[in-house]
Specification:
Layout: E1 5-6, H1 10-21, H2 44-53, H3 57-62, E2 95-98, E3 107-109, E4 112-118, E5 122-129, E6 135-143, E7 146-147, E8 150-151, E9 158-160, E10 163-167, E11 172-177, E12 183-188, H4 189-193, H5 207-210, E13 217-219, E14 222-229, E15 233-239, E16 245-249, E17 260-264, E18 267-273, E19 277-282, E20 288-293, E21 306-308, E22 311-316, E23 320-329, E24 332-341, E25 352-354, E26 357-361, E27 366-371, E28 377-382, E29 392-397, E30 400-405, E31 409-414, E32 422-427, E33 437-439, E34 442-446, E35 450-455
Antiparallel strand pairs: 1-2, 2-35, 3-4, 4-5, 5-6, 7-8, 9-10, 10-11, 11-12, 13-14, 14-15, 15-16, 17-18, 18-19, 19-20, 21-22, 22-23, 23-24, 25-26, 26-27, 27-28, 29-30, 30-31, 31-32, 33-34, 34-35
Length: 460
């Protein structure tokens, strides 16, 4: 990566000096920001590793962004985190660096940022100082993939304690040491589970064609990954520290969606939108608790499931937007349709729930608000999309929404179901399909050439 372009800012410098004086945590071992403290006596290499992994306590309390769609995997900025009330029209980056290709989103935890890109030959993981953009290490971990949409990784890495998990387009999954980038363990979807990566030679839109985009999730001592084997391994649960297979389940191919963990009808489970169905899996043994076939054109399922109470909402360019309610049936569970909006055919974006309403990229180059209880559109605003990609990333920020459009415009909208209300807009990057990260009042965005950090609400 090129050298960082760092904006001089005395306020930021003072903040960093205060941060260095704060107490240092000895262990941060929870992907959603729960902090664990214990006595320790760092020596030798361990002392060096601790310096890499620790961060100011205030940063952790403000909320990191360690995985796909944030700490709670629902695109919501933590309530304790500072959020902007407005967007300055002349917003300048705190720092900006050059990156290679890829749609993978950045993630931030304990003052460190991980991003994935490609260098012309390999797909590469990078660890940066989130405050300055300075690179700490970079590690090539798989062969580079490219199709007509671009080159580079499309799955978002995720951080858990002293480890970061990365995944390539062609199905190479690695657990890396966060301190140094060393491989702790790894698996190959093709070698270990028989999932052959075909690339553009494939005839439909599963992960074997456009890349393994889905991002795994940590649950306790397990990491659950969308492998996509039709031979009993749609999802695979590994021991997060050793890579030992704990269970595998399902006969569906993987699409581009990422699983979420939720409690539905009183049972905690992992919910996954595969290339062939929407289903809930038991977290302990992988048993399928309920399943609804959802086959669509090209099997192009890209959104993440959105859970509200006992309902799960998903969207597709074929079946539109669908809400299912999970209910008990005898000793098991079943899914029943709550509502369907067949005209709201959102291809890529995942809805964000706020105040009983869903906000998302629409089907007609527009942005929409719909009632989460009925699926009825409350309002629609044109001007979102260029007719080719038509994508927006949405983050819930207090009572407002931060929306990053596909052309790199950042919007601040009021989360108001009665009308579209724009509070500000500013250009922050070029064309992008990458979801941003938000940590401690800073927004991290990338396009195909650069990764940038913007201060939106530091110190608020």
């Amino acid at each position: 990566m090129p050298k960082t372009e760092l904006q001089t800012d005395s306020t930021i410098e003072r903040r960093e000096r205060r941060s260095r004086r704060r107490a240092v945590l000895d262990r941060f071992d929870d992907p959603i920001g729960i902090i664990s403290l214990r006595p320790w006596r760092p020596t030798g290499k361990f002392r060096i590793s601790i310096l890499f992994l620790c961060a100011p306590l205030a940063c952790l309390l403000a909320g990191d962004w360690p995985q796909w769609h944030g700490p709670t995997r629902d695109c919501k900025i933590p309530k304790a985190a500072p959020v902007p009330a407005s967007l300055p029209p002349d917003l300048k980056p705190v720092w900006k660096i050059g990156v290679g290709g890829g749609f993978s989103a950045p993630v931030v935890a304990a003052g460190r940022l991980v991003c994935l890109d490609e260098n012309g030959q390999k797909e590469v993981a990078h660890l940066l100082d989130a405050q300055t953009g300075k690179e700490i290490w970079s590690v090539a971990f798989a062969d580079r993939f490219e199709d007509e949409w671009g080159a580079g990784p499309r799955s978002t890495p995720f951080i858990d304690g002293d480890r970061v998990y990365v995944q390539s387009c062609n199905g190479e999954f690695r657990c890396l040491s966060l301190a140094e980038g060393n491989v702790v363990w790894g698996t190959s979807f093709e070698r270990d589970f028989g999932v052959k990566f075909l690339g553009s030679k494939a005839n439909n839109g599963t992960a074997t064609r456009r890349g393994n985009n889905g991002s795994g999730v940590v649950d306790g001592e397990a990491v659950i990954v969308p492998v996509g084997s039709t031979d009993g391994a749609t999802l695979v649960s590994f021991d997060k520290r050793t890579g030992k297979v704990l269970w595998k389940s399902g006969v569906d191919e993987a699409a581009y969606s990422s699983p979420v963990i939720a409690t539905l009808a009183g049972i905690r489970q992992i919910v996954y939108l595969s290339a062939d169905s929407l289903a809930g899996y038991d977290l302990g043994d992988g048993r399928i608790l309920w399943r609804v076939p959802l086959k669509t054109d090209a099997k192009r399922h890209a959104c993440s499931p959105v859970v509200l109470g006992d309902t799960v909402t998903v969207n597709s360019h074929t079946f539109g937007t669908l809400c299912l309610r999970i209910v008990k049936e005898g000793e098991g569970l079943k899914a029943v349709e709550s509502w369907a909006n067949k005209e709201l055919k959102t291809n890529l974006g995942t809805p964000v729930a706020e105040g009983g309403y869903l906000y998302n990229q629409g089907a007609n180059r527009d942005y929409v608000c719909l009632d989460s209880r009925t699926g009825e559109i409350q309002w629609s605003k044109p001007g979102f999309g260029q007719g080719k990609r038509d994508y927006s990333s949405t983050l819930a920020a207090g009572n407002n929404l931060l929306v990053l459009t596909e052309d790199g415009t950042l919007l601040l909208l009021k989360a108001d179901a009665t009308r579209y209300t724009e509070l500000g807009r500013v250009q922050v990057c070029g064309n992008t399909w990458s979801f941003p990260a938000y940590a401690d009042g800073r927004l991290y965005v990338r396009d195909g050439r650069q990764l940038a950090c913007y201060s939106l609400a530091e110190g608020h």
